[in-house]
Amino acid sequence: MSDSAPGGARRLRRIFKIGPKRPDQTAGLEALARAVVARLRQDGSPVVMTAVDPVQVAAVTGLIDSIQGYEDAVVKVGPLVVSKYRDRLRAHCCTEAEALHLERHPAILDSAADLILLIDSLAAGGLLPSDEPPRGRHRRA
Amino acid sequence: MPHLDVRLLGPLELRVDGVPVAIPRGNTATVLAILLDEANGVVPLESIVRAVYGIDIPQDPETQVQNTIGVLRRKLGAARDRVETVGRAYRFRIDTAELDTLRCKANEDHARALRNEGRLDEAVAALRDALGEWHGPALADLSGATVDSIRRRYDEHRLALLERRIDLDLDLGRAAEVVDELRQIVAVHGTRQRFTALLMRALHACGHTAEALEAFAALRERLADELGADPDQPLRDLHTAILRDGPPADPAAPAASEAPFPRRIPVMLPRANTRFTGRTGQMRLLDGFLEAAEGTAGLAVVTGMGGVGKTALAVSWAHRVAHRFPDGQLYFNLRGFDPLAPGADAATVLGEALVALGVEAHHLPAGLDERIGLYRTVLAGRRVLVVLDNARDAAAVRPLLPVAPGSFTLVTSRDRLSGLDATEGADTVPLELLSDADAWALLVRRIGMDRAMDEERAVLRIVASCGRLPLALTLIGAWAAAHPQFSLASLADRLDTTTNVFRVLASTDLASDPRSVFACSYQALGSRAARAFRLFGLHPGPDLTVPAMASLMGVPPADAEAALHELAGVHLIDQPSEGRYTMHDLLRSYAAERITEEVALAERDMAETRLVDHFIQSAQAAAQFLSFHSGGLDLDPPVPGVAVEHIADLAAAAAWFGSEYEVLLALLRRPSPPGGDSRTWGLAWCLAGYMIDRGLGPDLFEAQSAALAAAERSGDVFKQVVSLGYLSAANLLMGDRDASRAYLERATALTGGIEQPWAKGFVYYALCVQAGREDRDADALAYGRRSSQYFHEAGSRFWEFRAIWAIGWHSARLGMHAEAREHFDRLLAAAEESGAPPGIASAHLGYGFIAHQEGRLDEALLHYDRAREVFAEYGVDPSVAYVRELTGDSLAAKGAATAAAAEWRSAERVYAEYGTTHELTRVRGKLEDVGKVRVAVEGGLISVGAREEPSRLEQAVRETLDAFGYEVIDQTSAFEEVER
């Protein structure tokens, strides 16, 4: 049985903008995303982080711990998406194409369960759902 | 001299020293407009007659026009001398500052140059200045068919300038500023698609997408109503892009927006002949073909015998209509009838065209079909004039024809190119011999009216003897002008007795064999100039310099220059640009005949050997500036009598290679290259550094294959090893690592059989470079060490220190910082001792890299700054680019992403210009990463189930962002309840 449409239909959502505190002194949002992804194994269990700024380690750990306390939550920060639904927790650092896909299909960010399915398929090397119409018979293969 | 102020771009106005002059409307004003339309050019009397009277010619029209000229001169008063009589023609002399059309043209040229330099703001200002010359419709207060034609041309030009200015404004992000202006323009020029396209871009960029789509719909309706036509493809593409809410695109550059090719506007037309005259009928035919080609890819062919003036006509007309082609003008001499060289290769011409249009050299596909496809793609949506001069046949032209609407191609050929007419629908302009009147005017312009009047009959005989062939008339006229003591009658007698064959050939329009006329000029030359003329026949062409001629002659450059001046004085050669001389291919054919018949083989061989030595020595001098590459190997000394180009700096070196590169390749490609195997190998060696720096893999492969064959013929194993090393490098550049490895294996095998340690050092150095490119630093280090030992043993300090730098570099990459530092110290000490700044810079590059690796980023930046300063001072662009790339790395490591990206982009531009694929890919990867970061900065989201409390999670997100240097910047946003 699919659980792609779990929970209630209503959600609380906040969309916000992020900016560097000082343009020349950021570690990069991609670094943040990679730190969070590195914090989790594929099945969502924590791993020990190495060679990262201790303040950043603490902050990432705090974020993971916090979201663990939710039943149904999604966080997106730049290329990072983190999704928690029931006992499953996933984090993923999006490529440019994947980020663009989420921009075009933002609804999936309101479904933690669907987002987990998408992250799992991306991690397994699956392709993004295509936006292209089916190829017509006159098109070259 | 009285100052004039003349305005054609509005009501006709003329002031002499600030005082308005009333020019009578009617024929006087029309003649003034015609003369100023060709300002500083010669307008034959019969052309003025046709322009003023059309088919309604009065009795004795020429006298009528002469009277009108008289009226005009009286009106000009103190400036009457500005209207000059030139034989049976007139010329209005006027400075750029005095005539609005010339000022407009100057500003337009300036704008084009600024745009090509990327100075868009200033280009817009220059275009505004150009447009500021208009004060209403051109010649607004005159009437008549000729004036109407001139007015249409000028006003069309104004619209083209306006399009270019607004296009640039949009590129500069000024959509909001130009929207209202565009609305007004479109209201007036409702069916001009380009303006509607610009309006759609502007509206879309301002967020008024619906209005942009409405503008398209309105245009479609207008076109259907007024012309029964649909919007053109680029506009439909723009419409589709806006519908899909894609990025605003310029319909004139669909290919550019899809492919990574920056737009570049080529301006390749050679200088127009200021004495060009006549041919007004053919000019009008071409004008008509251009008008008729609107909306298609136009094609016209000028055909005629050699020397009849096809090129002069094509170039003059091309300059005249250049403003109709805002995306540039391409010009190629296909050399289809060159007596000494095969015609230009289509793939090579396409390569040059693509680069001129903005395609980076490393993006050029190898195959002809692929190049044709890319050429057509790049030209799609652009309005480019393509001039293909001296085509041998239709097959030579077809690959170079644009197919998309907007461009126009003009071909010249001695062949009738009937194939193009039949299959491509080419319009043909047959160019016959000059009319009697034009031939007379051409000759008289050179010898002077007084002399012509004194010997009127002799002039007519000379015109007849020259068969009214422009080239022959030019030569004879120049000869007669240079010999005022000779009577024209004796010259006519001489031609009468020697030109029978030529006259027959010329009058039948079947061939081009004006040998007799050439002989007349040739035989009159002094012995030094005659020798230079003959030796021109040994040069691969198309042009040469004074030192090259001095080498051919085996004389000091001053003597060669004097000989060239003498040849130029009698028009046997031209000087298309400062310091370079060229000869018409008919004359070069004649020169080649002369040298074959008059000069012994041994002497010809010696001259060719000196020429090759000239190129080898000059290439070595240039290569020192460009790459420091050719140092370290002693080539055979040049034979006596060789003159070397004076190359003072990097710019001169780059210019020399740019001008001579094709000549050097042509020498290497000869079946039996002059000067023997030793010089073939030497030429290839001298070119290797330039080719590597430019990423010219296929050329390097070809040159080194010839060098290897030469080395094998002569049994010189040492040279074989070096050539195999470069063949390996060529394959590396072409991306074939297996082939590269195979060549190095052959080189390695050969080194066992020779004693020279230099060759072994070279092979190990090549292995080091190869391993470095593949990120196999440990292997690279080992090879570098071996290489250094052999170079040391060979006593080659230059190459030894190249190897020492490589050892330091790969040690640093492997984290062996102490060893790396030791090698950079050695390099620095040696470079400081010998006063070699590039060596000092290389050492600082290494120190900077070590500091970066060890996390001392500020120190790294200091070293990189020092390295960059030196490389920049020496103009070693690729090295400067590499330093900037590393500077970007250190800035990025400090978290200064924006500054890092700026450094990387700077490096990217240079890598792209030099076509260094490997480096370009690497730096673009870094920029791509920056792009991801920039995209990510834009937004964030927290979404939880409706029954959950989001504040804890929000706080954790804030703390995480803070730890990585970010913050939530829109504090006013709040959680809202949403329905899934």
Automatic annotation (TrEMBL), chain A:
Domain of life, per lineage: Bacteria
Protein name (database record): Uncharacterized protein
Naturally occurring in which organism (per UniProt): Glycomyces lechevalierae
Lineage: Bacteria, Bacillati, Actinomycetota, Actinomycetes, Glycomycetales
Automatic annotation (TrEMBL), chain B:
SUPFAM superfamilies reported in the protein's UniProt record: C-terminal effector domain of the bipartite response regulators, P-loop containing nucleoside triphosphate hydrolases, TPR-like
Keywords: DNA-binding, Transcription, Transcription regulation
GO biological process, one term: regulation of DNA-templated transcription
Pfam families: BTAD
GO MF, one example: ADP binding
Keyword set includes RNA-binding: no
Domain called Bacterial transcriptional activator: residue spans: 99-243
Domain of life (superkingdom): Bacteria
Gene3D superfamilies listed in its UniProt record: P-loop containing nucleotide triphosphate hydrolases, Tetratricopeptide repeat domain, Winged helix-like DNA-binding domain superfamily/Winged helix DNA-binding domain
Keyword hit for ATP-binding: no
UniProt name for this protein: BTAD domain-containing putative transcriptional regulator
Lineage: Bacteria, Bacillati, Actinomycetota, Actinomycetes, Glycomycetales
